[in-house]
Design goal:
The chain is mainly alpha-helical. It has a single domain (2-436), classed as MFS general substrate transporter like domains (Growth Hormone, Chain: A), CATH 1.20.1250.20. Helix content is 85%, strand content 0%. It contains 21 helices and no strands. Helix 1 (2-39) runs parallel beside helix 4 (85-103), helix 4 (85-103) packs antiparallel against helix 6 (115-145) and helix 8 (162-177) packs antiparallel against helix 15 (274-302).
Length: 448
Amino acid sequence: MKSAEVSGRRHYVIAGLASMMGTTIEWYDFFLYGTAAALVFNKIFFPSFDPVAGTMAAFATYSVGFFARPLGGIVFGHFGDRIGRKSMLLITLVLMGVPTMAIGIIPSYESIGYWAAVLLVAMRFLQGVAVGGEWGGAVLMAVEHAPDDKKGLFGSLPQAGVAPGLILSSLAMSMVATLPEKDMLSWGWRLPFLASVVLLAVGWFIRVNVAESPDFERVKGQGDDVKVPIAEVCRSYPRAVLLAIGARFAEVTWFYTVSSFSLAYAVGTLGIPRTVILDATVWGAAVVLFTMPLFGLLGDRIGHKHVFMIGAVGIVIAAPIFFNLLSSKEVFWINVAMIIAIGLVYGCLYAPEGSLFSSQFPPEVRYTGISLAVQVSGALGGGLAPIVATWLLARNGGDPQYVVWYLTALAAIALLCAWCMRAAAVVAAHEAAGKAGVASNVSASVAL
């Protein structure tokens, strides 16, 4: 018995850690683009634009990846519910890694003109499709392997993969940012993208050795799989989808405002050196690497919904503090700003999402359901966050107050949506209990 328990524990621990390491690699690729868009892409691919227009154009190509994510969520969600979680995660890993390396060899605007931007957009689109399919599968591999009383903790591990991904991408750009401006813009920025080949190989080795999700195996074994998962989700679970979209909208907007827009704001408007703001981002990500599992554990104790709601309130409190600390232009307070924004507020929001959102859908359409909700909100929130924030900043003459109001309004919506998720979760629980009851009655009848 003890040997079986140890084997089972090892099984779900490995699945959780593999999900975390896999998402680390994919988020490295995704965040690297955002950092480069904030710091160098306007000069390399849009040099004929004025600084503000060039920055917005760079963020527009950045947004393409977000708008591609719902497509990835639908496609990989469909096959993840039909064929399996594991195979989809292997495909998304390659689909992310290869375009990232390709970005590192795209010629500049000076070499091939606007074709450089076209190639950049194409690679960013493929990255978006990959991330759209990645998140749902990684979360489900961790949550569906974990025991009921640890789903919050293990559901937070793929989320925690964001932190090392952000740390690695920020460190990589910080290292090349120390190069002379000419070298940085000609070849230095390419090195972090080309280095993705190493991470791709590591990620493949890790994921190929993980077992398939037990929930998926059970659905296939019982013949409960759905032929067209997206149709079933839209027909039977529209409320769950809309609530998850509304809840996550604030979280994803907050994160990309802090991690991408604030880089351009700090460097371009406040005149803060690139290395200072990048190093501060690393500090924030380092803290959230530890707080993410802690918030996951807290969700197992007091409820995942309640932890998420605390994070929504945190946005309201932290948004004005964040920009005030940045405006101090002092290294210590800039580091504190990023630790609060990423390490605490973002961690509190993101950690419980895997368990909270997946509980809204039954296993046979769960990959599709959570992928659709999360990636639509990602496209609307994350894709537009840097553009909207840049526009609001310009409208208010460089004062970020309008950005603060925008974040506060989204936080209020998230708070309401999270509160309303209680009914959706109860319905899902009743459906599961009903199915179990039917199975029990059938077994009893056969026995009689």
